[in-house]
Amino acid sequence: MAGAVISVLLAAALVLLPLGTQALEFEMQTQQKCIYEEINQNVIVVMDFKAFNSHNPDQAENVDVRVEDPHGQIVNEAHGKAEGQVAFTTKIAGEYKACFTARDLQAAYTTKLRIDWRTGVAATDWNAIAKKEHLDSLTVELRKLEDNIREVYSEMLLLQQREQEMRDISEVTNTRVAYFSLASLLVCMLSGTWQLWYLRRFFQRKKLL
Q1: Are residue 91 and residue 151 in the same domain, yes or no?
Q2: Residue 112 phi, psi (nearest 5)
Q3: What is this structure's pTM?
């Protein structure tokens, strides 16, 4: 029975593990290319990048790298590198931006980028943790599963929070629309009343009434 439970937990860990990994490969075509990632608060982020010539993969191409938080503040940057790693821990939740800039437009046309973007559990160095805490492979997998479950739960809370924010915005918008409709109706009624009064006075002056 215990063996079956462990097997189920390990299978769940293997299913959840890829959630924090995003591998990309694309040609720049423009002097600056940016990618965006929605990340929660207090999450470890590791991004490996490599820039090379699209016609000759063995030829490296230098690029500048800049990572910004949702408020536009630079959290990490590198200049004139063909490959490297950018690592940081998010301080706020939101959309993070990583921008890659070629030295000029002509170089951008022949530059290709390979990016490995990892967050949370996928970005954690589990080998170092296992050596430091003297953990066996099964314990490490269970720790991965636990952290994956926490990430999923945290993402669910974030989605719930945003849903509540959207609901509040929708309610405020509906309230404003209702007030605007009432104000428009009141203006129409006042305008109609004034027009009737004006026409009545006009016809009385002309002695038509």
Answers
A1: no
A2: -120, 140
A3: 0.59
